[in-house]
Amino acid sequence: MTYRVVQWSTGNVGRHAIAGIDARPDLELAGVWVSNPAKVGRDAGELAGLGRDLGVTATGDEDALLALRPDCVVYTSMADVRLAEAIDDLCRILRAGVNVVSSSPVFLQFPDGVVPPEMSDPVREAAAAGGASIFVNGIDPGFANDVLPLAVTGISERIDQVRCMEILNYATYDQGTVLFDIMGFGGSLDETPMLLQPGVLTMAWGSVVRQIAAGLGVELDEVAEWHTRLPAPETFAVAAGTIAKGTTAALRFEVRGMRGGEAVVVLEHVTRLRDDLAPDWPQPAGAGCYRVEVRGEPNYTVDLRLLGTDGDHNTAGLKATAMRLVNAVPAVVEAPPGLLTALDLPLIPGRGLL
Q1: Which H or E run includes 8?
Q2: How confident is the prediction for the chain on average, in pLDDT?
Q3: Are 35 and 123 found together in one domain?
Q4: Binning pLDDT at 50, 70 and 90, where does residue 157 land?
Q5: What pTM did the predictor assign?
């Protein structure tokens, strides 16, 4: 069976999703939506950097794309700074009877106990009204801290703690809005960026600890946050701009699922803009990695190393997010209507890619 797919946005993740849709023999690219008028009329292959045309031109006409009655939309528009608009987008698509795989808003990965019902209920109601399904995922939040850690716990005799870590250098991540405005890199350590405002880490990654706990049948007492930052020793440049001496250049945070006063499920990020910063913080395997540690009997450590064919680990991370969504399309289309989580879906392999 062939599934007709519309790609919604062609940014850092979206262009890799187009390549992924083209790579799968059971998917057909039916349309591409873009927000930038300069991209309207351009071929999807060009926008994805494939070096060849795919015969599908981009449009900014949402109605026209939904009128195509695609089986699924791959939604990769940024939601971090346009949350209400993103929710409206998803509800509109779902009410039209079109399934969705989406990289955002990330709290929809597993919203129960993470956000108030009024933030997720409109999406559930739209899915029910349209008889469609939605799956929000990626690499993180996503595969690296849902399917991967839960699979590792399946070979445990006793579990004391599950820790999921991202250990990456973001220097080549060319997304200034995320790096500077949201994460606070290049900003004063005396100021609190959006990401570190109380409750924001939990909104973004609380779904991770809640879903792992649910998968293990554990009820958490609370979810707590912790973070620390380090300054740049001198001024230096990254892909997205300049980091001035004394401004934030390294960030480490944890979202901790607590039970009985102990952190039993932990999401940790260790983010540097130079490899030599914070040498006493956890170090990655290879150029960058996602790490799962299951402490108990026995102890397990699994490192998922990332590296694109261009030599950049951040390219691999973007592709992983895109392909987690693209490869999930058949399973999501065939699933019952509703808001799906990784606990609801079967194993999602890269069928047809070998």
Answers
A1: strand 3-8
A2: 97
A3: yes
A4: very high
A5: 0.94
